[in-house]
Amino acid sequence: MECIYTIDPLVDQPIMLLDRHLGNLEDGGQGIDGAMFARELLYLDTLGKSAIQIWINSEGGKVVDAYSIISAMLKSKTKVDTYCIGIAASAAACVFVSGRKRIMADYGFLMFHNPFIETADGKMSKTEMEMTNTFTKSLVTLTSERTGKSYDDTAAMMGKETWLNADAALAQGYCDEVEVSSEQNKKRMYAAQGVQARVKTGAECLRAVVNQLSKQNNYKMKAVTAKLNLNEAADETSIVTAITQIQNRSKDFESRATT
Q1: Which listed residue, of 131, 165, 188, 212, carries a Cα 20 to 30 Å from 111's Cα?
Q2: Is 103 helix (H, G, I), strand (E, B) or coil?
Q3: Residue pLDDT, tens place only, 169-197
């Protein structure tokens, strides 16, 4: 299956990006296709992954598309963790709270509100109002069940449009962990004393290697010094001198033999 929303389906914990609005909106065009996203997630579920990560930065969108994604998350046998890497608003906030483990960047935001239907005159028909009320009850049920809040508290929270930063979301149980941005992807900072200590350790290691090699060389040269009738502690100069003398005697012998 060709993956559209997954960065690398071959890794143990693939990342799926929910980084646009949900569904096809009149003023925004096609965003995340909820059905295709769900199908892709369920495909990853068949690959024996240890977890699936959904990274969210979305202003929300169509509830129907959110339903497809949430249902696939909840039915997946693989752990599905959600990450708010910017904003998770409206229907995207409902996707976020549906994660097994919910992690927010310390600069992230959640926004909850009741669903609505946009009309030309800003007024909804009776049928549209009934549809909106049905969606509202459904999302309140989902959010309260996933956060452990009461139905009434969740309905009140969504009814007045609520914005939560990472600290507030953690305190109120809408996320499980906050990632501190200052600890991520930063240069390694060392104190001068620490650097000196590491350099010293490196120099000591180098000396140890040299000493070891010297010991090995001395050990291997014992047979050579013995053959040359030299003391086993003879240095390189003494060994070269002895070899040179042998070479000279050899040349002299060859010269006399030829004559």
Answers
A1: 131
A2: strand
A3: 999 999 999 999 988 888 766 554 554 44
